[in-house]
Amino acid sequence: MTALVRAELFKLRTTRTSLAIVLSLVGLVVLVVLLSGLVEDAAPLGERQTQFQLLANGSIASAFAALVGVLSLTTEFRHGTIKPTFLAEPRRGRVLAAKLVACTTAGAVLGAGGVALSFGLGRLTMSVRGIPLVLDHRDLALALGGSVAVSALWGALGLGIGAVVRNQVGAIVGLLVWSLLVESILFGLVPSVGRWLPGQAGNALVQVEVPHLLGVLPGALVLLGYAAAAALAGAAVTVRRDAA
Amino acid sequence: MPDTDAVVAVEHLTKRYGSLAAVDDLSFALAPGTITGFLGPNGAGKTTTLRMLLGLAEPTAGSALVLGRRYRELRAPLTRVGAVLEASDFHPGRRGRDHLRMLALAASIPPSRVDHVLRLVELDAAARRRVKTYSLGMRQRLALAAALLGDPELLVLDEPANGLDPEGMRWLREFLRSFAADGKTVFVSSHVLAEVSQTVDRVVIINKGRLVIESPLEQLTARVAGAVRVRTAQRAELERLLRASGLAPAIMDGDELLVPGVDTRRVGEIAAAAGIALVELVQESGSLEDVFLELTAGAAS
């Protein structure tokens, strides 16, 4: 099993896709933190909610973690490498389990790195403008822990979605339409329902003082439920369907 | 009863996609130490059969065993079976050597094997380049290197000649010969008999998912030498008479029969004695390829 996990982590390291994902994340976090940190009025930046939002911006890493998860299987089907992968380990459940470990690990690393970057850069813009830090240690722990947890879980959720959909473009477009359109509209119109959706459940872990969101623990449990369900559905489908 | 000594044992194997039977009640077996050609026109069901053999696709009915087990039940399968499927099964952005290292990691094969097989297929110079820069022939070699990674006792190749130049083909022929000389088994598919006729000992010919013939190559060659093709409006009657004379005519397209192991004079005499008018009576002098085409065309009608 450890051999399979090492193989999956090796796959992530040996194409340029991972590098592109890391660079995109870094670029986006730098851009957003510098823009909001330097442009936002000083008054709201002195408040807990806005300050938390600025410093925890790196939790956008969860979107990139979802992408890593989606690509893990869909890339193998797209390029046909799923055949050598399943020839080397025909017990497909084990391959899926190894991918689950690799994708959640990669997600956690992205989540930690993203928040470390946004925190460092955000603090820098604040100190340049002489804005004091109002967040306490619990807030900072939530920003880091929330980002790591949400990104790790989205890695698993993406893997499950990719396994069920199998078509790479279809899975990515579906995920984008869902998060940017369906979820945000539903949450805006019917927050009592929308807050139970995976994106908003995750947001409960990386935002503070946002009305209607679930609490931190319920949010984490709901997202965990989605991730587990997606991973199990993906495994069931992958074990049954012909690979080629 | 499955043949437990067989390296490959296919029994009543069937694969349906909707109403289409890609493989239809196919049975054959391979003995150790042989090189068997798996032949048939494009779309005959060769690739589908190999996928079921390798556990990538599930049979609708029947079974396909490798080394006495289903592929999925083999422990450390890469050390038992090596497979070359399509030469495009690589991530284009990954280096050739990394493709092999990835498989070696997954299969717990010592990393030293990676460089060994790269030298074996003479790809070591290009090993650190990304696969997208490889020619088709180089991809075939990389796929072969991946198949050899675990030093398997059975090698399965699907259309390996695609994209190989004549020199590459000669190299592959010699390689497969030396592989089988060690007592190992080769199963190689092709839609062109001539590509493998210099390499294989036996042939399994299929068409439309069904077995056409399974025989040693010499027997197929013998058919070339001694077959008579005869055309008559009274085909059924002539067929019955030929069978009564101990011959085994095969029914071909139209009004034709192909009668192996006989000359034109004897067929002519049998027809004349019964007053059957012949339209055409020809001693087959065609190549092995003609026989192959005839066999597969015959089964199609």
Walk me through this protein's architecture:
The complex is a heterodimer of chains A (244) and B (301). With 244 residues, chain A is mostly helical. Chain A is built from 12 helices and no strands. In chain A, helix 5 packs parallel to helix 8 and helix 8 runs parallel beside helix 12 (216-240). Chain A is globular. The mean pLDDT of chain A is 95. Chain B is an alpha/beta fold. In chain B, strands 5-6-7-3-8-9 form a 6-stranded mixed beta sheet, with helices on both faces. A 4-stranded antiparallel beta sheet of chain B has the order 11-12-10-13. A 3-stranded antiparallel beta sheet of chain B has the order 2-1-4, with helices on one face. In chain B, a hairpin with a 2-residue loop joins strand 1 and strand 2. In chain B, helix 2 (96-106) crosses helix 3 (112-120) and helix 3 crosses helix 4 (136-148). Classes of the chains: A mainly alpha (244), B alpha/beta (301). Chains A and B meet through helix 1 and helix 6 of A and helix 2 of B.
* Beta fraction of chain B: 25-35%
Based on DSSP secondary structure assignment, what is the total number of beta strands of chain B? Answer: 13
Distance between the termini of chain A: 24 Å
Please estimate the helix content of chain A. over 70%
Residues in helices of chain B, as a percent range: 25-40%
Structural class of chain A: mainly alpha
Give a count of the beta strands of chain A, DSSP E runs of length 2 or more: 0
Mean pLDDT of chain A: 95
In terms of DSSP E residues, the strand content of chain A is: under 5%
